[in-house]
Amino acid sequence: MSTKHRLPLHGQSLHLTTTATSVTLTGLTASTAYNWRVTTNCSASASTAVSANFTTLAATGCQSSLDNATNGTISGAAVIPFNTNVTGLISPSGDNDYYKFVITTGGTATVTLTTLPADYDLTIVNSAGTQLAISQNGSTTSETITRTYTAGTYYARVFGYNNANNASVCYTLKVQLGTASLTGTNTPEITQNGLLKIYPNQVTDFVTVSVLGNVDKQSVINVVDVNGRVVMTSKMINNLQRVDVSSLPKGVYMLQVNTATGKLSSKFVKQ
User: Fold this and answer.
1) Which of 130, 148, 177 is the last residue of a domain?
2) What is the pLDDT of residues 73-107, one digit of tens each?
3) Which residues pair with 243 in a beta bridge?
4) Which domain holds residue 238?
5) By the 8 A CB rule, do 45 and 140 touch?
6) Looking at the DSSP assignment, which residues form a beta bridge with residue 256?
7) Has residue 123 been placed in a domain?
8) What percent of the chain has pLDDT above 90?
């Protein structure tokens, strides 16, 4: 028995010969239509063929939750954690991905764009949308921007050169801090006129929550991710309490304390 697997471009085909009842094909493109034909080789004068079409499944998503429906513009950019790989897709043609990062203490930082499936470029813009730097190497060469930042809000933009795109293979973006930093690791984040303090601001396991004033029996601590989903809930029993966040993925989170008199909230970074 022989099988012929026809490629989608220019009628190209791959011919296989086998005595088995099944054949495994590899290297096919996701979400692509193909045609196959099976021909029996019983003798020189006797042969039968059957054929059919099939479409490969869509690729499983490799992008992180930060590459979402809103990050195609600056206003919808997702806040990304420092020193962490963030994966995303440029698709369809003309797609732009914006990621937001906030520098509190000025200094150096390096933004890298790697694992490129096509010719992608990288720019850094400020909160006014002004381009500050660009890396535009050709083909699938990685992009790197190292510069000095003043305190402020910045955006990394990933896009395809000449509308290059790929619907199944992700790029990897990373903002690596040098001498620049966000709020110091052991400096409390203070909000709502000093009523709520959380520290450290960059945490790997436990974050300490301090609330001034009375804590009632209905007080609840919620941890919310960048998509607005509550990912952790615990009761606020005392004015000073430690919350175990070690199970959370790396990223930026909002910690909310809901009391009978109102809501207090502050951001922290899970490293």
Assistant:
1) 177
2) 999 998 888 888 999 999 999 999 999 998 888 88
3) 207
4) 189-270
5) no
6) 222, 265
7) yes
8) 39
Q: pLDDT tens across 6-44, in order?
A: 444 445 566 667 667 676 765 555 556 777 676 766 666
Tell the burial category of 81 from Cβ atoms under 10 Å away from its Cβ (0-12, 13-18, 19+): buried
Q: Are strands 152-160 and 166-177 parallel, antiparallel or unpaired?
A: unpaired
Q: 132 has which bridge partners? A: none
* Statement to judge: residues 167 and 196 lie in one domain: no
pLDDT at 133: 97
Cβ atoms 108, 179 nearer than 8 A: yes
3-class DSSP state for residue 161?
Answer: helix
**Which tens digit of pLDDT belongs to each residue from 121-150?**
999 999 889 999 999 999 999 999 999 999
Q: Which residue has the tokens 């922290």?
A: 268
Domain match, 202 and 163 both? no
Whether the pLDDT of residue 262 is over 60: the answer is yes
Between strands 120-126 and 189-191, the pairing is: unpaired
Q: Where are the beta strands (DSSP E) in 18-141?
A: 33-39, 49-55, 78-79, 86-90, 96-103, 107-114, 120-126, 131-135
Are 92 and 153 in a shared domain? yes
Residues 159 and 202 in one domain: no
